[in-house]
Amino acid sequence: EEWDFVLVSDIHEMGSEKEIKRKKFLDELSKKGFTIKKIEDTKLFYGVRAPQHIFWKYQCLLTNPDSRQQNSSAQQDVPVTTRIRVVHFILQNTVTSDLEKLHDLMKKKVFEAAFPLHKKEKITEILKKKWARWRVLFKEQPIEEIRDYFGEKVALYFAWLGWYTYLLIFAAVAGLATVAAGTTVFSSSQVSKEICDANNTIMCPLCDQNCSFWVLSDTCTYAKVTHMIDNEATVVFAMFMAIWATVFLELWKRERATVATSWDLYGWDEEEEELALQLINNPQHEPRRYQHSYFRSTIVLILAVLMIMVLIGIAHALVIYRAVAMALFTQSEVNLLSRHADTIAVMTGAVLHYLTIIIMTKVNRHVTLYLCKLENLRTFSQRENSFTVKIFIFQFFTNFSSLIYIAFFLGRINGHPGHYVRIAGHWRLEECHPSGCITDLFIQMAVIMVLKQTISNIMEYLIPWISHQLRKKKKRPKKRSMMLGEEEEAEDPCKKHWLKNYELNEVNVFSLFNEYLEIVIQYSFTTIFVAAFPLAPLLALINNVIEIHMDAIKMMRLHRRMVPRKAKDIGIWLQVLEAIGTLAVIGNGLVIAITSDFIPVQVYKYIYSPCARWNHTSMDCSTGYINNSLSVFHIRDFEPHTKVLPEFNGVQIKECRYRDYRNADDYTYTIQFWHIFAARLAFLILFEHVALCVKLIAAWYIPDVPQKVKNQILTEKHTNLRDELSTAEYSTEV
């Protein structure tokens, strides 16, 4: 027997309110011609099968888009995915005499679950063998079979994810090449050498109370790591990634056009199908009109802005933590903490940032659902698009606010010795390392990406697996002992199958959405600040290869069958990806112009270095850069409450150095500061305009729809018109 859906209910007392409500709902289904089969176990199971006339109506209203054999019965004509989709819609929109729908009844615990069945068919065996197992990690996905079993929306997600993962190979290779180029200057960089040899350069204390001066050469290893990331190859890589992001989207548009044509999706309209299903469910149905309320929109906008301000406030809290942690670690009696206070503060701050991401992701979802409820949009696709945009904006601020601070504000708003900017008048803000701030951004991104792709993925797989195992081990009632002469009752063949499906984990309505959001946030990490973390594409590639098959195993073996949905493309996510591509150009331009030391070094080489002043071409033009980039501070000008140890290694200290371009007498900015500022601004404008022009040229050069697909559509239109003309001429002659 073939059953479209199974409804599960607790065994309620006869005559109870829940039992009456359940009976009313099942009676409404019977009036519509549904066949219902009841099986009793620890729960009540109701198998539901829709009548054939529902699918005849569906075919007539939608000009039979899914028919494969015109002369067959409806059950053979309509694909299983369409059949499940139609039945699901009717179940969700059937109204009882108490004006309650299935959703309301499930809230009141009348029904516990409603799900389509995983069936033991040839297609399920193919998917389990070629897709939902770890042995086929590097094999091509069976997209056609995924479509036939889970519908177009799921198939398009995996097609997009597979395409993105394939193109990540090129980005990962470019990232590895950038890191490899950086390793060649790990020990040979002139700037790193100067820091490592600066045994006599006394730096100003890192805290205000009982902190000693320190020697610049103590940070030799940190400087080497910084210049392994921050070099000329990084600029080329940032430009490459801006072009890569555009090429990826343009090639995906071509791939999607090919898929949409082969699946005959161009003629399908989501709104038309929804109206058709409403009429099939209720012939007297009147469509809900489009409405727009400026008052509602204003309220939603105000609440969304308030939420964004809360998320920015959380980023400020992380900044405060880093400042306080830096001060405490620096004054710690533990030698490891005091020597590496800045690095430990950055790493613990990154872990704390990851924890806030976990917590705020749940909060963001509840807030977004509330805002969408306030909007009260007409169609499911409108609600889905609105939800997607809002949750992405909230998640973007959750994930990137702290990174934006590190990239563009850290070490630039902290003041200078004698006049530090302080939190609550007590803790001073962090400073950048003399070799730059880009390593802080590198550490923050590395920690977050590694944690997200290990802990989150492990939990994403383990929780459903453990839940499934626990559900399987729940004790079933013992078989009743047989009386003498009594025959054993044969067990219904459906019972075992339905129980096995019921033991699987419930499918969350946001299951596919969560997967999209996870990968799109990863795409943001891979593109927006990739100049600071060239290994991001490699980590994303490794994650995605595992993610594809982990999702497949969850969908086929651990979760109940997802209700198949139809779609032409990946929807609003494409616009989100295009917005990220533009942000990537701006973000990487700002990282190189502001965070990186690339511009100050170039300004020094061409204006202030020995090469520029005395035409010494035989020496490295960055010689003397570190000394030039450090300003002098007289310790007599320290703030009154600052307590530093005046002696260092037995020597009385009268002045120390700090990273900035200020005059030694009045601590105002030098002319070199303004030269660097102008160069940063000029580079930013040039980089962004060149990158955006290249993006536009790439978008123009690569057509969204392949010529083969255009010609196929053209031929089909021509053939259809010719057939109609022949039919019209024949009718006229008769």
TrEMBL record:
Keywords: Cell membrane, Glycoprotein, Membrane, Transmembrane, Transmembrane helix
Locations listed in the record: Cell membrane; Membrane
Domain Anoctamin transmembrane, first and last residues per copy: 146-714
Annotated ranges, domain Anoctamin dimerisation: 80-143
GO molecular function: chloride channel activity; protein dimerization activity
Pfam families found in the cross-reference section: Anoct_dimer, Anoctamin
InterPro entries: Anoct_dimer, Anoctamin, Anoctamin_TM
Transmembrane regions listed in the UniProt entry: 154-181, 233-252, 298-324, 344-363, 387-410, 520-549, 570-594, 677-702
GO cellular component, one term: plasma membrane
Membrane disposition: Multi-pass membrane protein
Stated family: Belongs to the anoctamin family.
Name this polypeptide is given: Anoctamin
Native source species: Leiothrix lutea (Red-billed leiothrix)
Highest classification ranks of the organism: Eukaryota, Metazoa, Chordata, Craniata, Vertebrata
Gene name of this polypeptide: Ano9
